Amino acid sequence: MKTMFIESKKVEREMRSLVNENEQHARKSESGNVLFLILIAVALFAALSYAVTQSSRSGGGDASSETNLVNSSSITQYPASVRTSIIRMQVSNGVDVTDMEFNIPSDFGNCSDSGANCVFHPSGGGATYMPGPAEVMDSGSQGRWYFNAENEIENVGVDSATEDSPTTSSAEVIAFLPDIKKGICKKINDELGITSASVDDIPIESGVNVQTTNHENADGSSSGLPNYVASGTTATINGTGGELVGQAFGCFQQPAGTFHYYHVLIEQ
Questions:
Q1: CA 47 to CA 43: how far, in whole Å?
Q2: Quick one: which H or E segment has residue 187?
């Protein structure tokens, strides 16, 4: 009996040992399967990432070019919306171009006639003032739009401008966004079909008053606007090679390596 009991225990131990070995083998097998699945997932993710990268580089086009296109559109569309407000002021409210004020919201206190002449004031044109997007600025920070009537575009408006200095009857009201990125400037001109033999294929100008603010009221009075055209400080935009003749909006360098966008709001 004792012998049978011992033998029984021995068989039991052997069976447990066998079961343990099977369980360990199963765990190792399961672990191996999990590891295998993880490796497959990693490989698939790597393959997918590679496919997306290749697509953006080839089939999807140049990502940088696409970004420049989107950002350049945001620049060209904004002045068009301001122009709509200006036309409404002229037609509906009878505001003369020489009386229009482009004070930004933080300077509404200096708008004359309770804001009726201010393009961005709710009582005037009701246009929305928006700074230049940081994405398009060379500095990487938001930029400022400048609105003035210090320059004219050759062959834009009724007056056939030449190299002569603009006058109150020929100067256009123009929106300027200075110091934008070269890639944005180039994309704008590419979309407009503007080419140039100048460096970077972008027209070069000189003497253009980009940052003059003669259309902002300084003190809220009827005499708060500076002279419509400051004598001796005006220029005609046409490009050194005539690339900008007849172009109501576009981009130029001044000086070389510094890029500015311009957009005519009122032609004369």
A1: 6
A2: helix 182-192
